[in-house]
Design brief:
Among the domains are: 2-182, Porin (Beta Barrel); 324-434, 60s Ribosomal Protein L30, Chain: A, CATH 3.30.1330. It contains five helices and twelve strands. The protein is rod-shaped and about 175 Å long. Helices cover 14% and strands 30% of the residues. The protein starts with a helix and ends with a strand.
Amino acid sequence: MKNYIFITLLLVGLTTSVVAQNDTNPWKITTGTNAVNLMMEGKDRETQISPNFSYLEISRYVGSGFSLDLSGTINNLTRESGADNIYFGVNLGASLTSREIIDLGNFEPTLHAGLGLVDIEGDDFITSYVGAGLNYWFNDAFALSIKTSYKPIAKEVNNLLLDGNYSHSNHLQHTAGLSFAFGDGDKDRDGVKDSEDACPDVAGLESLNGCPDDDGDGIKNSDDDCPLTAGLAALNGCPDADNDGIKDSEDACPNVAGVAALSGCPDADGDGVTDADDACPNAAGSKELNGCPDADGDSVADKDDKCPAVPGPASNNGCPEYPLSMLADYDINFDLEKYNIDSQDVQRLSTVLKVLLANSDANISIEGHADNTGEESYNNPLSKNRSKSIKDYLVNLGIDENRLSTKAFGEAMPKASNDTEEGRAINRRVEFKVVN
């Protein structure tokens, strides 16, 4: 038997993990032996040891270092006359471990107190007890436990044991045994057994396998990127106030739905520029122009471009460098008695068109002239037809007709001498004059 006990203690001591009785292993059974140390007035103390398994204790851990204890002991007390008396004791009390105050490793001092019932040869006596003990834990389940309890009892016990009448009698009771802690406890007291609790050290919810969910969004804190603010599972527990699929903590515009590429900010025209930074939020444009379009590609936003359909430098408001003064060099000449536009005229009129487009605020007078060939009554309508044909041509090319007016001077305002053929060819013309 001694060898068996030695081997058992050796095996349970091979591990260094020491947890002891706690919420995880709330139950503890201790079995061993006990000794009674009589403290009789006028007599030497006597210690009477029961060598057999004469001590059994069941303990339940209740938290904060406290346990409730129920124990029973049996011993054989020898009277002065030599007669033996069976001593039987039952104790109900509480014990406090030092582990909640200080961790001493394998050693665990304890204090205990309670009430008890002592039976000696059929006579029952109520007693109280206080004491101290020490547990040495080999691992998280097995320990060597010793206790000493002081028990004051009534004088009738003294009379029974000594066959005399003494004023009082008390005794010490010592116990020693092997303790075994066990049970599927609930360390965090959340109602989920530790064996089923994914978070056994922190109180949580049964629906989350015992794990906490501080913000109540159904996502346990360990998986929740925003554990203190209710959010969505798709965003790892983080909120999304504008429902754009971007968590508020990463959303530069958390209250307005936007796109991920712009950190959650809106882009109504889809040009990659946030509405807040877009000078033209309803028309797709380029980032270089703050989100505004540039139809002619001249790097001048259409809203600032006075010639949005014709490329031009910003220094000229987006218009090509075609000053109005150029019109003085672009008279359109006609053959004798003609007002139709030939191919040579088309080339010159293309430049006139560019000048008009580049100066979109300018109004132009188209003035027709004739040489002195023929009668005045013929030359006046001819010069009118010449100015009208030029106007119609420019209007067909997109120039607003309200910008163009016509005049006819006939032969009244020659530009050169009508005495030569060369001079008369110059006088058969249309001139462009700026009128504003």
